[in-house]
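Q: Please design a sequence for this.
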């Protein structure tokens, strides 16, 4: 929001963020910004307008031997520490998102966002659908969360 990076911040990180935001905006233009906005609003209603949505990001494969154990340890602690007004949304992908969903309490506050016609197969959380394909789902996911 116009703030300059401090002396301990990497200005290139800000540029990377702007590039990703530009990619997201280009993607929205391609699939129809109005459709994406409508889907985000629909999902916000479904999840609860006063809900804080924490979107879970991460690789589809674990790169280090202890990374999976770390995700499995963090998920229940984050779920327990977060207030009842918080819901967790994954993109329904394998790896980090699946491990988080399967270890986040009883799964009642986990929602797995996938394109229409797809399911996560996690056996934990609630699958919800938005977007005709992965690109649309990613654009919606990118606008849905309060925290990533």
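A: Design:
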């Amino acid at each position: 929001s116009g703030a300059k990076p401090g002396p301990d911040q990497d200005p290139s990180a800000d540029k990377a963020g702007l590039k990703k935001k530009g990619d997201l905006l280009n993607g929205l233009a391609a699939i129809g910004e109005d459709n994406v906005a409508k889907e985000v609003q629909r999902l916000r209603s479904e999840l609860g307008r006063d809900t804080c949505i924490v979107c879970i990001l991460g690789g589809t494969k674990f790169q280090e031997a202890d990374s999976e154990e770390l995700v499995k340890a963090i998920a229940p602690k984050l779920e327990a520490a977060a207030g009842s007004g918080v819901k967790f949304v994954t993109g329904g992908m394998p790896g980090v998102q699946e491990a988080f969903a399967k270890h986040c309490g009883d799964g009642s506050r986990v929602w797995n966002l996938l394109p229409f016609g797809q399911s996560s197969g996690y056996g934990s959380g609630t699958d919800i659908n938005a977007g005709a394909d992965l690109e649309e789902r990613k654009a919606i996911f990118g606008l849905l969360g309060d925290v990533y």
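Q: Thanks. Anything notable?
A: Confidence is low (pLDDT under 50) at residues 1-21. The chain has five helices and four strands.
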